[in-house]
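Predicting holo structure, S-adenosylmethionine bound.
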Amino acid sequence: TDSDTADEAVRSTCDDATTCKRYATSKGYWTDPYVQYFVRSVGERKAPEINRGYYARVRGMNHLLDAFIRKTECNCQIVNLGAGLDTTFWRLKDENLMPRKYFEVDFPMIVARKIHNIKTKQQLSKPLIETHSTDSLLLDGHCLDSDRYCIIGTDLRDIPVLDEKLKKFHLSPELPTLFLAECVLVYMTPDQSSKLVNWASDTFHTAMFINYEQVNMMDRFGQVMIENLQRRQCNLAGVEVCQSLESQKERFLKTGWENADALDMMTVYSVLPQDDVTRIEHLEFLDEKELLQQLLQHYSICWATKDKLKLGLSQVAF
Ligand code: SAM
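Done. C-alpha cells:
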C-alpha cells in the first residue's frame, strides 16, 4: 500500500544518516569507533558542507545530552526515539557517562538489523555483556534487553503500544528521563508528534526532550530541499515541516513542558567550542561559505524541560 511505501522510505533515511556519519568520521570530523560496524564501507564522497552540517548536528546533540547526564549524575534514563543505527550507547559507556538504562525505539525492521549487527560483532556485544549482571540477557530477532541497554521495535505513532513496551522493559516514570529525537519527528504529522511529546510530559515529572529537525523550509532554498526529499520518494504528503523556531518551542509549551528553547544550527555552530570548529574547518576546503550558512539555517535544535525534582534542568543550554 501507499503507506507501506512511505514507511519504507522513512526507514531508508536511517541508512542515509549512518552513511553520512561514517563518511564524516572517516575524514576526522569527530571520532566514532563503532559506526563502522553498522555501515561496512565509507561510501562515496560527501560535500564539505554536508560533513560540517553533520558535525554541528552530532556535537550539538551531544553537548545537551552530556549536560543532562551530568546534571542528573547518571541517575537517569535515556530514550532515543527513532534511534536508527545510532552509536551513542557505546560512546557513553566509553566515556563513563552511562545512564541507569538506555532505551532505543525504531521500526521493527530497523531494530532487527541493528540487533543482527550487535549479535555478530563482538566489539558491539562486549560492552553490553560487560554491563549486564545476570544470565537473563534477552537477545532475539526483534528485541534486546539487558540491564543497561534496551532496543524496542515499535511504531512511534502508536502511543499506547509504545508506553506498554517501554514499561514492560522497566522504564521508570520516577527517574529523570531524557528523550532524543534526531531527524525523526519530521516524518510524522504535527498531530502525531504533538501526541508523542505530550505523552512524554504526561508520563515523566522530571524530563528533558531534545529535538533536531528541519525548520524555515518555506523560502527558495527550503523548497529545493523539499523537492529533493520527494525525489527520494519520501512521502511528505500531509507532513507539514515545522515552520519556525517559535513553532518548535510552541509544540512543547502547549503540551505540558515548562521550558523550551530553540536555536538554528548556524547559531549552534557559532557557539560550539571554536578551537575544534577551526580544526574541522581545516579538514576540507569549503569555497562557498554561504552554502554552509544556508544549510545550517534550515536545521534546528529545540530542547524542553520539566523539573519537579529541581535538578536545574532549565539551565542546560549552549
Ligand atoms: N536518529 C538517527 C540518527 O540521527 O542517526 C536516525 C535518523 S533517521 C533520519 C530517522 C529514523 O526514525 C529512522 O531510523 C526511522 O526508521 C525512524 N522512524 C521514523 N518514523 C518512525 C516511526 N513512526 N516509528 C518508529 N521509528 C520511526
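The pocket of S-adenosylmethionine is lined by residues 10-11, 13-14, 17, 82-84, 86, 106-107, 110, 155-157, 182-184, 187 (CB under 6 Å).
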